[in-house]
Specification:
Receptor-associated Protein; about 400 residues; 3 domains; 16 helices; mainly alpha; Ubiquitin-like (UB roll); 3 strands; three-stranded antiparallel beta sheet
């Protein structure tokens, strides 16, 4: 498989290599063996021209490459120009060109990023703005890369854990659909020709089969419309908020969603505090990460802190911390390492979420398999039950 490798070597500047390798690590090793300093590797997209779609700006990759160029000694504008020259995505190259134009006008980097809110979130802009006061852009980029990698790791665990149940439910649904549309109608015609009396449940199933056989096109059209409607509804912000509110109402699931938001909240807050941002401004910046019902509580906590109250007491009073989080916050206030304690709170909640997801998948997978098997088994038994009765009567 071919891999694209962005690398540096001597005075040659930023280069884009195309290597044949087994995986991304193998491609990086090959480039390093040729004397290159590897910045990033990715698989070459062969069907990108046919399946081209509007892609988001690769923020983490941009941060990694910019960090490598800055650490190599390049000035900021030259580093971004080098990234723009080798960028093969038109949208990303346009974004980088706009940043370069604003930098040449004498604008700071944070101002240039702020003009592109679709590509650079407010949290990223805030971290860059804090670095401009201390001159530690490389350190801030490194911290953001770690932050984003950790947050993506949590999402990846959730997605990975969801794959097996989704595949199992999809396969079971397709099998049941096949039985109801193709198999049951055939048995319905056979029993109708024989004219034997059927058990009540088998009779209902066979009548359903005859109905599907007569109107199967309408049935498939209705199913397709329902699926399309569900997909369309899932993409609507209002529907997403409604579903989120309903999920929060389930006690067990609502508790886990609360933990996930607390982990994201404290990790983002700790990163901003490490970058030198004042606590009140940092709290206002991360308020968008919380559910709407919790934002009012955060506003009250922010006001309490602004009036001189301690962080731990404000979080405890307005329900923005677990018992463990409050203990660590108190320790951080006494030792002056509140940002480090917030990172530890986030790590603890993320580990707890990962353990819960693992336990849930181990329990839910077999239960879902048993349910799907039971439904399919009932359909099969109801189809063959009249045959068993007929065989018994012949004997």
């Amino acid at each position: 498989m071919q891999y694209e490798v962005k690398a540096l070597r001597g005075n040659e500047g930023l280069l884009l290599l195309l290597l044949e390798a087994a995986d991304a690590n193998d491609a990086a090793v090959q480039a390093q063996a040729q004397g290159y300093t590897v910045l990033a590797t990715r698989a070459k997209q062969r069907w990108s021209a046919l399946l081209r779609r509007k892609s988001r700006f690769p923020l983490v990759l941009f941060s990694q490459e910019l960090l490598a160029l800055l650490e190599a000694g390049l000035p900021l504008i030259e580093a971004i120009e080098a990234l723009a020259e080798k960028e093969d995505q038109p949208d990303a190259r346009k974004t980088l060109t706009q940043i370069i134009s604003l930098l040449y006008e004498g604008r700071p980097l944070s101002y240039a990023l702020e003009q592109l809110p679709k590509d650079f979130p407010a949290l990223y802009v805030a971290t860059v703005r804090s670095s401009e006061k201390t001159g530690s852009l490389a350190e801030v980029l490194s911290r953001y890369i770690v932050y984003q990698t950790q947050m993506e790791g949590v999402k990846r665990k959730v997605v990975t854990a969801s794959i097996y149940p989704v595949i199992l439910a999809g396969a079971g649904g397709l099998v049941m659909l096949f039985l109801m549309i193709f198999v049951v109608p055939r048995f319905s015609h056979i029993y109708a020709d024989i004219g034997t009396d059927l058990p009540f449940m088998s009779m209902l199933l066979m009548r359903w089969g005859l109905l599907l056989d007569a109107h199967w096109k309408l049935f498939l059209a209705i199913v397709s419309m329902l699926c399309a409607g569900l997909v369309f509804a899932a993409l609507q912000p209002g529907c997403q908020r409604w579903v989120e509110q309903k999920l929060w109402q389930f006690p067990a699931l609502g508790k886990r969603l609360h933990l996930y938001q607390m982990a994201r909240f404290y990790r983002s807050l700790g990163m901003l505090l490490q970058g030198g941002m004042p606590i009140v401004a940092a709290l206002q910046m991360v308020s968008g990460l919380l559910q709407e019902s919790m934002r009012a509580q955060l506003a009250l906590a922010t006001a309490s802190i602004q009036e001189g109250g301690s962080i731990s007491r404000a979080m405890e009073k307005y329900g923005l911390g677990t018992p463990l989080a409050l203990r660590l916050l108190r320790v951080g206030e006494r030792t002056g390492r509140i940002d480090e304690m917030m990172e530890r709170v986030a790590a603890f909640h993320e580990d707890e979420m990962a353990r819960w997801i693992e336990r849930f998948v181990k329990a839910f997978g077999p239960l879902l398999m048993a349910f799907v098997g039971m439904v399919i088994g009932v359909i099969v038994v109801l189809m063959y039950f009249p045959i068993f009765e007929l065989a018994g009567s012949i004997e």
